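Quick log. Single chain, no ligands specified.
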Amino acid sequence: MRVISYGKGKRAVERSLREIDFAGLVEGVAYHPSPAAWEDEILYFLFLDRFSDAREFGGFSDNQGKPVTEPSGERNTPLFAPERDAGTADRESWFEAGRSWCGGTISGMKEKLGYLKRLGITAVWISPVFRQVTGSSDYHGYGIQNYLDVDPHFGTREELKDFVQAAHALGIRVILDIIINHAGDVFAYEGNMQYTYQDGRQWPVQGYRSRSGESGSIPFDVDVNADFDGAVWPVELQHASVWSRHGEIRNWDGFPEFLDGDFCTLKDVNLGEGLKDPSAAWDLQRRIREFRPSQALKDLSVIYKFWIAYTDIDGYRLDTVKHMEPGAVRYFATAVHEFAASIGKENFCIIGEITGGRSYAASILDNTGLDAALGINDIPDKLEFMIKGWRSPGNPDTEEQEGYFDLFRNSLLDNKHTRQWYGSHIVTMFDDHDQVGVKQKFRFAGDAPQSELLLPAALGLNLASSGIPCIYYGTEQAFNGADHRQGDDSWSDVFLRECMFGGRFGSRQSTGKHFFNEEHPVYRFVSDVAAIRKQRIELRRGRQYLRQVSATGYDGDFYYPQPMGGALRWVIAWSRIFADRETLCAVNTDTLQALRVYVVVDSSLHPPGSIMRCLYSTAEGTQHHDVTVETRQGSSVCITVPAAGFVIYG
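-> predicted structure:
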């Protein structure tokens, strides 16, 4: 490796893929093994720039469990106090601060591993760490300029490697967010014009940018191999053939525009040749058979093999799968899986961001070799708004896919080999950094005051129902970011990305106060439920059944709860069953009153006269009491679910 100067300091970073010594990287390394099943894990998605800058004190402990209580040196950010600090920032300057870099670092993230461990997290998914276009405000990480280096805002490659090692030591796996569909705004079209997609036309280019916004002064059509910050790296990606050069996408569902156009100003990579006939868009297998990978796709596959070998990461979250040919996704997934298996990571996980619905996601998973999907638009919608009382939980007596539980119950009908297929292939979450397709964006707790009361119910559903659960950073501290502007939705996603460490863009319109409060009631709730989930395999891998409930307990008066007059303020209960064990969970969507109901359970596992114990309740002092199974609708138990609450019986 050559020593290349990048601003302050010097680091060993390859400028060409030819310089990567894979044999030297893997020789003698005992790589961290993959989990037996990813549905056993609890994921935590954090925005690196918005998570920690290592300057916080008070409210949390270090990775060894020692309380960090006092300021020292640069550690000068105290814990947020809502009654004193909320709403104190000037809203305009606060919002402007959120539109650019805020200061989160890998070193800050590393020292919060203990915080995550005690929360119950077993796998952390990190937003892209790669070097962004010089001088850009791409704090989000999706505007890559150098695929072989870490952005200096975050730290160094060595720090990333050390972070993974420290995470593994605490039993936490690491998933990196990656992009192969596009790079950053690394070149300018002719005249620095903002061209848009027009019937596949390839637009003339000016040259590579030396820094963000520059008009394109670096030659585009030659193999540039000099020491400068502009263009794109490694050098193999500097050939003109790497880029599609079709201008920005305008019709996000137009085929093949959404495949070949630029993702806004981010420049589309030509991943290979595929069918362009819109009438064949549905035929994924034919598109895969006839796809021919480009050299750029092969080079990107080498790049992401390098990061596995170098850092010992456990998985990838693959961005914008919808905008890639399925043949490209298959080529990449195969290359990465084979390499990971060759170094002992037999269950290396590639999670695809697949917008476009559950059926499309299932088809992509089946045909490309991705391991799991997230970004399926109806899952967060149905999860969030069912808990808020505006969606049906579903109805197993019909074939309609109208409710949240319907999404997971028909895997056999969809020609999957097991009823649990969706549980092991779908990542479930509600808060998110993007919220594709939503204009005025808000976190779960951001739309109305009562929503914060329902956070434990939503998190309980997420953790104890089918799927691979993922928690978005800050949700465990009841972050309530929301865009309440009228008539303006520009930069709306900024409101979803508050800083855990405070800085100039802290949550709840605050500055200079951090949010790593291990005594926060939502943090404690997640920690408690995660511990029960770890103990009970049925909550991780079990079959799932929406249960009938009754206010009276009379036979024939049991039903699957449905909205009445457009609203559902009632108990929703479900069972998870694995082998001979059943665990019953329930939420109450009524924020004002506790509800006492009868709930059906499996009569072969819990015959009348048997006992079920309350393992958890959000009502203090009610845990660990027993209920007797009664002869009602076969077998049922009478339980009380607190207002806006969550309970577990087993």
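The mean pLDDT is 93.
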